[in-house]
From TrEMBL:
It comes from Thermobifida halotolerans. This is MerR family transcriptional regulator. Signal peptide: none annotated. CDD domains: HTH_MerR-like (cd00592). PROSITE patterns: HTH_MERR_2. One of its GO terms (molecular function) is DNA-binding transcription factor activity. Keywords: DNA-binding, Repressor, Transcription, Transcription regulation.
């Protein structure tokens, strides 16, 4: 059977890899995307591709959620200044 999945693109991580690296489930990462907190690249096959800047942003989302900050405020915080350094 032929492999029909899109080969990984250089510099992009899969949803599973990003979720594991940030310490959340893939479902949580999708929720953050639905809330507009991260915008991964969409590959031709529909799968998500995450850049290093997306990972940094997701780590900040998780940090703020752990501090009890709501999604709306997190959006304002992330959009109000420069991205944190990795």
């Amino acid at each position: 059977m032929a492999n029909t999945s899109t080969p990984p693109e250089p510099g992009l991580r899969s949803l599973r890899a990003v979720a594991d690296s940030v310490g959340v489930s893939p479902l949580a990462v999708r929720l953050y995307e639905n809330r507009g907190l991260v915008s991964p690249i969409r590959r031709p096959d529909g799968s998500r591709g995450y850049r290093d800047t997306d990972v940094v942003r997701l780590r900040r989302v998780v940090e703020l959620l752990d501090q009890g900050v709501d999604f709306t405020t997190i959006g304002y915080v992330l959009d109000s200044g420069p991205e944190p350094a990795e």
